[in-house]
Structure formats: C-alpha cells, structure tokens
Amino acid sequence: MEPLKSVKQAAEQLGISPHTIRAWVAQRRIPHVRLSRRVLFRERDLANFVNKNLVEEREWV
Fold first, then answer.
1. How far, in Å, CA of 39 to CA of 57, rounded?
2. Per residue in 15-57, pLDDT tens?
C-alpha cells in the first residue's frame, strides 16, 4: 500500500493552504481517504487531481 499524506502534506505539495484542502474535502472536490476522523490523501489521487485541473496553454498565432 502506498503511503498516505496528511492535510498539511497535501497542501504543501499542491502549494495551497490546509484551510483550502479542508474546504475541498467538505465539498467533495478532491479525492481523500477518511480513517476515523483523519483525512488522508493518496499520492496518485493528488497527481490525478492536478492533471484533471490542468489548463492547457493557448497557441497564439
């Protein structure tokens, strides 16, 4: 099993605040694992989340 990241670790990896991560969890906007009261994240889910929200650059002519 791959290691799980805490809210703080996920926030640091994504470059956002832990508050934003918690808000996204409450909105079910980001995949997460809930073990008892702890909210954790799989590395691949964070990578997929970033890729899913990637905005491609426009090609200017």
1. 33
2. 999 999 999 999 999 999 999 999 999 999 999 999 999 888 8
- Angle of helix 7-14 relative to helix 18-26, nearest 10 degrees, comes to 110
Q: How is residue 15 annotated by DSSP?
A: T
Q: Using CA of residue 48, residue 42, residue 17, residue 34, what is the dihedral sign?
A: positive
pTM above 0.85, yes or no: no
Domain boundaries, the chain: 4-51
Separation between Cα atoms, residue 32 and residue 29, nearest integer Å: 9
